[in-house]
Amino acid sequence: MTEQPEHTTHRKIIHIDMDAFYASVEQRDNPELRGKALVVGGSPDGRGVVATASYEARKYGIHSAMSARVAKKLCPHAIFVRPRFAEYKEVSRHIREIFSRYTDLIEPLSLDEAYLDVTEDKLNIGSAIEIAQQIKQAIKDELNLTASAGVSINKFVAKIASDINKPDGLKFIGPSSIESFMEKLPVEKFHGVGKVTAQKMKGMNLHTGFDLKQLSEAEMTRHFGKAGRFYYQIVRGIDNRPVQPHRETKSMGAEDTFAYDLADIDEMHAELDKLAIKVVERLQRYELKGRTITLKIKYSDFKQITRNQSFTTPIADLETIVQTVKQLLAQTDQDKKIRLLGISLSNFNEVSPAFKENNGQLRLF
């Protein structure tokens, strides 16, 4: 017998994801960029990393976190522009205001996506699908941008659903169809399964949700650690995580484990560029500035080290973070291959308005 979720009354969860957010804002604000292959982040000379790309650029295979050098090769006529995080933050704030018309249970994941729990909505609409439609329309009318929405009974499935009909999509996956949907899903599409884990799963001949379902919970935990229990549950449509507007933390950062160990300094720099963009975006959301930058490194032999630098004044700008972590990297063993890199900011001595609004709590990404 299939295990059932604990909740007898299903939650109504919406995942909203803006379509090519940074690129769409740039195209909205500059008519000359509309319909063009646009890359936000990096530069035409191949430096840096892609933050996002317009759908016109994505047709050439360009995607976020790709090095600008590769993006330029794929699409020589692509237009590169610098990110305008202050503008993206203002647009994100307006989007958040639209969300708050319907619910206070909002969990932002970044500037361009969030979970909403509308089990009990402020306007007594009752239908999560109708609320998602109204939110999409409000974003289009008030900001001249499009968003995609996924609707389901839990966060995991709602997030997957939002990606199905992009751009400007809306997908509902109801309780009765969740398990069959999850069985057909490729393992790399499971949110939380990164490149390394997906590679390991395929090496075990686990290619879809159906394959994962053949393993017991004990087997999943043995192969994948604590995450194994989560995979065991979500492949059965079970995800009881609540939408959490606030979560306390004293640092904010991002890290990534690579599909293969990095030995080339240019690759390391490209990964640091990518991570720095994520960190700055998260700092912008809460109007935070930190005095301490920390670089985390895990080598191929699993030895882990951290290096940090503190400043007399709080910082949050991309250029300073990128320069600092690359300097910190240069002070480490350059002959060892790297399995993981991470960047974080801490020592938030300035209390921002967003921090006060959240009752002194920050969301940990």
Automatic annotation (TrEMBL):
<feature type="domain" description="UmuC">
    <location>
        <begin position="13"/>
        <end position="194"/>
    </location>
</feature>
<keyword id="KW-0239">DNA-directed DNA polymerase</keyword>
<keyword id="KW-0460">Magnesium</keyword>
<keyword id="KW-0808">Transferase</keyword>
<keyword id="KW-0515">Mutator protein</keyword>
<keyword id="KW-0234">DNA repair</keyword>
<dbReference type="InterPro" id="IPR043128">
    <property type="entry name" value="Rev_trsase/Diguanyl_cyclase"/>
</dbReference>
<keyword id="KW-0235">DNA replication</keyword>
<keyword id="KW-0548">Nucleotidyltransferase</keyword>
<keyword id="KW-0479">Metal-binding</keyword>
<comment type="similarity">
    <text>Belongs to the DNA polymerase type-Y family.</text>
</comment>
<feature type="site" description="Substrate discrimination">
    <location>
        <position position="22"/>
    </location>
</feature>
<dbReference type="InterPro" id="IPR024728">
    <property type="entry name" value="PolY_HhH_motif"/>
</dbReference>
<keyword id="KW-0238">DNA-binding</keyword>
<feature type="binding site">
    <location>
        <position position="17"/>
    </location>
    <ligand>
        <name>Mg(2+)</name>
    </ligand>
</feature>
<dbReference type="GO" id="GO:0003887">
    <property type="term" value="F:DNA-directed DNA polymerase activity"/>
</dbReference>
<dbReference type="InterPro" id="IPR043502">
    <property type="entry name" value="DNA/RNA_pol_sf"/>
</dbReference>
<dbReference type="Pfam" id="PF00817">
    <property type="entry name" value="IMS"/>
</dbReference>
<dbReference type="InterPro" id="IPR022880">
    <property type="entry name" value="DNApol_IV"/>
</dbReference>
<dbReference type="InterPro" id="IPR050116">
    <property type="entry name" value="DNA_polymerase-Y"/>
</dbReference>
<dbReference type="InterPro" id="IPR036775">
    <property type="entry name" value="DNA_pol_Y-fam_lit_finger_sf"/>
</dbReference>
<comment type="function">
    <text>Poorly processive, error-prone DNA polymerase involved in untargeted mutagenesis. Copies undamaged DNA at stalled replication forks, which arise in vivo from mismatched or misaligned primer ends. These misaligned primers can be extended by PolIV. Exhibits no 3'-5' exonuclease (proofreading) activity. May be involved in translesional synthesis, in conjunction with the beta clamp from PolIII.</text>
</comment>
<protein>
    <recommendedName>
        <fullName>DNA polymerase IV</fullName>
        <ecNumber>2.7.7.7</ecNumber>
    </recommendedName>
</protein>
<comment type="subunit">
    <text>Monomer.</text>
</comment>
<feature type="active site">
    <location>
        <position position="113"/>
    </location>
</feature>
<keyword id="KW-0963">Cytoplasm</keyword>
<dbReference type="Pfam" id="PF11799">
    <property type="entry name" value="IMS_C"/>
</dbReference>
<feature type="binding site">
    <location>
        <position position="112"/>
    </location>
    <ligand>
        <name>Mg(2+)</name>
    </ligand>
</feature>
<dbReference type="Pfam" id="PF11798">
    <property type="entry name" value="IMS_HHH"/>
</dbReference>
<dbReference type="InterPro" id="IPR001126">
    <property type="entry name" value="UmuC"/>
</dbReference>
<keyword id="KW-0227">DNA damage</keyword>
<dbReference type="InterPro" id="IPR017961">
    <property type="entry name" value="DNA_pol_Y-fam_little_finger"/>
</dbReference>
